[in-house]
Amino acid sequence: MPIGDLDAIATREEDAVDQTITALLASPEAWAALATLIAMEVILGIDNLLFISILTNKVAENRRKLARRIGLGLAMAMRLALLAGVAWIMELTRPVFTVLEHSFSWKDMILVAGGFFLVFKATREIHHYVEPETEGGTTGGGVQLGLAAAIGQIVLLDAVFSVDSIITAIGMTPHIEIIVVAIVIAVATMLVAADPLAEFVDANPTILMLALGFLLMIGMVLIAEGFGVHVPKGYVYTAMAFSALVETMNILKRRRRAREKAAG
Description:
By secondary structure, the protein is mainly α. The chain has two domains: 34-231, no CATH class; 232-264. It has helices at 3-25, 28-56, 64-84, 86-91, 106-130, 147-172, 176-203, 205-226, 233-262; strands at 95-99, 102-105. A two-stranded antiparallel sheet has the order 1-2. A hairpin with a 2-residue loop joins strand 1 and strand 2 (102-105). The radius of gyration is 22 Å and the shape is globular.
């Protein structure tokens, strides 16, 4: 094909992309979809952020911020990579085999595996919190995890949350551009919140236990979803928000008592 024809085709493709972007910018429905997707990505990202916060608090203190940045960066990269293979990601929802009249897809198996991993990790961390003495004689609050081990575990959970997030996003809008923008904004928001959240969890043992309870519940929800039992996310996050509000009031009360005691 002559070079001139190739240039003309490339020019037409660029014009088509520009027209698509201009149409999206002028569409109220596109902006509404973007706002909804950003909110959804941030809410779904809370699970990931809690796990990253708890896990990186077990890394050496001078490497915690690096671990969080890498973890969230990988979460965004994994979501964008899955989005680039949108045809492949949708194949994950097709049934692979059937057990007791229930069909399992690759997505279901990923959710079940991720749920069991999350339940295992949360249960183990709760055990370390309640019984801090380990076999080696170190305490559960000490540095117990290397950077590579932390990143490896974060990648495993990132894969689970990314698959769920992308499939949900594709079901909400057919415009890949909107999903990409929503993912970037949501991860940027989580990057800003990561350090304050991790430090808050580390400084308040009761919040740590509450967060572990949340992860345990989220793991069970993932397992249930994998077995075809739909659990409305609104119920889960409402319960989390209510529990967090009650614990925040308890923290404020304890701080007030501490100030009154210090004042004599």
